[in-house]
Design goal:
With about 170 residues, this protein is mostly helical. The chain contains eight helices and no strands. The chain has helices at about 5-25, 35-45, 50-65, 75-90, 100-125, 135-140, 145-155, 155-160. Helix 2 packs parallel to helix 4 (about 75-90). The chain is globular.
Length: about 170
């Protein structure tokens, strides 16, 4: 691990702390808290290599597991799938230069993917009798629109604050 990786992990931990503090402040309204950790994963996927993206997504998902009410692994799987989607979209559909429509698409797509993957994972675990099932409306509601708008608004501040490695594409 070099110094740049340490800075990126510290930045991820800092975003996690801000996210957790936001959840404490807006206790009854979690959709009012931007999901800074997965925005960081999307930005990392745009800038870095495939293997580095998977490791960063794994670290972000593992960090989110500590403050989650989901069965272990739901956040981890969601972060990895969001990172894969962002990586493949920016390599095959759009350019790696993130302009506003691409940023809005990536943030909104991540906002939709996160609860969908968590729901499917929890449904699988409930099918294996490891946990209780969750209603679809508990994870997907009209409030996801507010969450998507907040994530789009916070995409660029997170992008410009995130440490960038000097030897790779910026």
């Amino acid at each position: 691990m070099n110094k740049q990786n340490l800075y990126q992990l510290l930045y991820l931990f800092f975003l996690f702390l801000i996210y957790v503090a936001g959840l404490k402040v807006f206790t009854g309204h979690p959709y009012l808290v931007p999901q800074l950790v997965f925005l960081s994963v999307i930005i990392f996927a745009v800038r870095e290599t495939f293997i580095a993206t998977l490791w960063y997504a794994f670290a972000a998902g593992f960090l989110l597991e500590f403050f989650s009410g989901f069965f272990f692994g739901a956040n981890l799987l969601a972060m990895v799938i969001i990172a894969l989607a962002a990586f493949l979209i920016t390599r095959n559909v759009t350019s790696r230069r993130v302009v506003l429509p691409a940023a809005a698409t990536l943030a909104a797509l991540g906002t939709a993917i996160f609860p969908l993957v968590a729901y499917l994972y929890l449904l699988l675990m409930a099918g294996l009798n490891l946990t209780e099932s969750v209603a679809f409306a508990d994870l997907f509601s009209v409030n996801i629109i507010w969450a998507a708008l907040l994530n789009v608004l916070f995409f660029y501040p997170v992008k410009y604050a995130q440490p960038v490695s000097t030897e790779k594409y910026n």
